[in-house]
Structure formats: structure tokens, C-alpha cells
TrEMBL record:
Keywords: Oxidoreductase
Statement: the UniProt record of this protein carries the keyword Cell inner membrane: no
Alphabetized PANTHER family for the sequence: ALCOHOL DEHYDROGENASE, ZINC-CONTAINING (AFU_ORTHOLOGUE AFUA_7G04530), PROSTAGLANDIN REDUCTASE
Protein's name according to its UniProt entry: Enoyl reductase (ER) domain-containing protein
Annotated region (Disordered), positions in chain: 1-20
InterPro entries, A to Z: ADH-like_C, ADH_N_2, ER, GroES-like_sf, MDR_fam, NAD(P)-bd_dom_sf
Residue intervals of the Enoyl reductase (ER) domain: 19-333
Keyword Cytoplasm: no
Length: 344
């Protein structure tokens, strides 16, 4: 495939205030495509992962990664194919995963990319789903941070999202656990029930807090959303409960962050609340991939994708749709929707 001399990318134009991103946050532009040097490759981007963390990467604050700078290509994980190579590591046509960014072509050192094969019985998109960061987050979050034991009561918020769907099904597959899945619509709750969740709760439905209290005490809370719900759960944790601080999406766009009040419950219940970042477990990713692939092969892990087409024009709408709760499963932008072929 001929490599063009120009690249189209989406760069950060204005650092957004708190609140949802708008099209003005970014600018789409054409820039010269860098010629690859020794050890470098050119990758044509095919699929981009859209993640809640992207909103945090736009904020100039201390975090696990530096913020995206004004004028820089928007950071994003993605999958693509090598179209030109000056490295022994990859040949033209190889499928690779890396921080490819919101652009049509990525040029850089081959050593920062990971080779990927289309998974047996699956599709390449799975490397952005249950075999990607979402799967790693779910696995290490529930087992290493949540220390899930047989017969425990597990509550998962954001249960119909990319990470939540996986956590829910890991917990359902775990012996004798009672699995409580929380999501934002009846439709999502129905699907979670079909996946085996024992209790499904729509947090947008009247009487939600009462229904959650009726579930009884909680051993593990896998928190994807933060905010007021965390207080509701803190009020009903069991002794030695573990709260897995995975994410706080309810707070990423808000002008008034919620101040959690019931943390003293952690003292009286001798409980732990621990944050984590999945990237820290990179050396153990093969262990998580083996576990999740086995679960999928046994039919105990069903996964879904919210694929937004349009390539670079789909990135901002996809991010908005995810924050609006339109996705079930992993949100992905495809440059060619037909190529995405999600495994449903
Ligand atoms: N610690 C880590 O290493 C790590 C890694 C990856 C992701 N995360 C975190 O994990 C969480 C889930 O990420 P994901 O990629 O799986 O995203 P996701 O759940 O697929 O997508 C976001 C979902 O969050 C829900 N949501 C949006 N606004 C909300 C609000 N105000 N209150 C409650 N729910 C809201 C929506 O579902 P509903 O319809 O149910 O509202 C939406 O579909 C995020 O907080 C993310 O930052 C952490």
C-alpha cells in the first residue's frame, strides 16, 4: 500500500473547562507525514478505543499520565496495520496495538508497539475489548484489589459498560457469588439479567436506593462511577469489605464534584477502599488474557461493542455517546465499519 505524504489528525485545540467536551475542544488538520527512521514503522490506524479516562487526559493535573498538550494529537489506544517498515520487528500487513492517537497514520519506533493476532474464534476488535485494557482492568480489579471469594455479594456499577460487563460475568462465573449489577437503563438491565446477574438495578429508576438497600450487605463493590452511589454502598458494607476504586465517571464532567461522606464506615467495618491502574499489571497480562479467553470459550463471557463509524469524524461523537450512556460494552471508533466486524 502506498504511504501518503500527508496525515490527517485530531489535535487538542482548547483545554476544556469542567463539563462535557465540545467539537471546539479539538481541531482536525492535515500535517506532513513523518518519514520513518531506522527502527521505525508506519501504521495505518483501523480502530480506536474510546475511554472515559480520555476526559481526564485533557485536564492539566497530576495523574498517572501527563495531560495531552495543546496542539498534540489526541491520545488513544488503537489497532492498525503496518504499511511501511524500517524495523526487523514487523513486516508490512502485521496487526499492531499501541497508543496510536486520533490520526490516520502513526509513525514511530516499532519497539513501543505490540504484535497482535486475530484471536481464535474472535475478531481483532477483541484486542480493544475483553483482551485489551478493559479486560485487564476487570480481571486485576476484581481478583487483586477486590480479592473476590466464593459466596460473596458483589455489586458492580457501570455494569453494562466495557469494564463492567466483564466484571459482572467474572463474578457470575465465580462459585456461589451473589451478583448485583447496576446500570442506567431498563434495556441494559435486561441484558445483564440474561448474562446471569442475580439482581439488576436501574439507577435512573425511582426507588433505586431502596432496592439497593434491600440487597443487603456487600462484600465487594466494584466502583466504576464514584459519586453519591459510593456513599449508598458505604452505608451497607460488610466487615472486611473491599471497595475497588476503578473509576468515577459520574465526576469526570461535573461542575460540582460530590464529596463522599461515609468513609468512617471503612474504620468501623475494617474495610478497604483501593484505587489501581491496570497498566501496572502489564507483566501479568498473559495470565488475565488466558483466564478471559477460557471464560469466553466456555460461553461464560459474552461481550459487545458500540462501534461508531466515520474514522476521525466519529471520535468526538463516540466520546459524547459514551458519557451519555449510549454504549453497551466497549466504545470503539472504526475507520472502516465493515472491517470492524464485531463479534456479538
Ligand atoms: N483503573 C483503571 O485502570 C481503569 C481502566 C479502564 C477504565 N477505568 C474506569 O472504569 C470505568 C468504566 O470504564 P469503561 O471503559 O468500561 O467505560 P463504559 O462503562 O463502557 O462507559 C461509560 C458508562 O458509564 C456510565 N455513566 C456515564 N455517566 C455516568 C454517570 N454520571 N453516573 C453513572 N454512570 C455513568 C454509562 O452507563 P449507564 O447507562 O449505566 O449510565 C456509560 O455507558 C470508568 O470510570 C473508567 O475511568 C479504569
Amino acid at each position: 500500500m502506498p504511504v501518503p505524504s500527508a496525515n490527517t489528525r485530531v489535535a487538542l485545540a482548547n483545554r476544556p473547562e469542567r463539563g462535557p467536551i465540545t467539537p471546539k475542544t479539538f481541531r482536525k488538520e492535515s500535517v506532513p507525514l513523518k518519514t520513518p527512521g531506522d527502527g521505525e514503522v508506519v501504521v495505518k490506524v483501523e480502530l480506536l478505543s474510546i475511554d472515559p479516562a480520555m476526559r481526564m487526559w485533557l485536564v492539566d493535573t497530576r495523574s498517572y499520565l501527563p495531560p495531552v498538550q495543546i496542539g498534540e494529537t489526541m491520545r488513544a489506544n488503537g489497532l492498525g496495520r503496518v504499511v511501511a517498515t524500517r524495523s526487523d520487528r514487523f513486516k508490512v500487513g502485521d496487526l499492531v496495538h499501541g497508543t496510536l492517537g486520533w490520526q490516520e497514520y502513526w509513525v514511530g519506533p516499532a519497539r513501543v508497539l505490540e504484535a497482535r493476532e486475530v484471536p481464535v474464534g474472535g475478531n481483532e476488535i477483541d484486542h480493544l475489548g475483553f483482551l485489551g485494557v478493559s479486560g485487564m482492568t476487570a480481571y486485576f480489579g476484581i481478583f487483586d484489589i477486590g480479592r473476590l471469594k466464593d459466596g460473596e455479594t458483589v455489586v458492580i456499577s457501570g455494569a453494562a459498560g466495557s469494564v463492567g460487563l466483564i466484571v459482572t460475568q467474572i463474578a457470575v462465573a465465580h462459585p456461589h457469588c451473589k451478583v448485583v449489577a447496576i446500570a442506567g437503563s431498563q434495556d441494559k438491565c435486561e441484558k445483564l439479567r440474561e448474562l446471569g446477574a442475580h439482581v439488576v438495578l436501574n439507577y435512573n429508576q425511582q426507588g433505586f436506593a431502596g432496592r439497593l438497600r434491600a440487597v443487603g450487605n456487600v462484600d465487594v463493590y466494584f466502583d466504576n462511577v464514584g459519586g453519591e452511589l459510593l456513599d449508598v454502598i458505604l452505608a451497607q458494607i460488610n466487615p472486611y469489605a473491599r471497595i475497588v476504586m476503578c473509576g468515577a465517571i459520574s465526576q469526570y464532567n461535573t461542575n460540582k464534584p460530590y464529596g463522599v461522606r461515609l468513609t468512617p464506615q471503612l474504620i468501623t467495618m475494617k474495610a478497604t477502599m483501593q484505587g489501581f491502574i491496570a497498566f501496572d499489571y502489564e507483566k501479568r497480562y498473559p495470565e488475565a488474557r488466558a483466564y478471559l479467553s477460557d471464560l469466553a470459550a466456555k460461553g461464560k463471557l459474552k461481550y459487545d461493542y458500540h462501534v461508531v463509524g466515520g474514522g476521525l469524524d466519529g471520535c468526538v461523537p463516540a466520546m459524547q455517546e459514551m458519557f451519555d450512556g449510549k454504549n453497551y460494552g466497549k466504545t470503539v471508533v472504526a475507520f472502516d465499519e465493515k472491517e470492524a466486524k464485531p463479534k456479538l
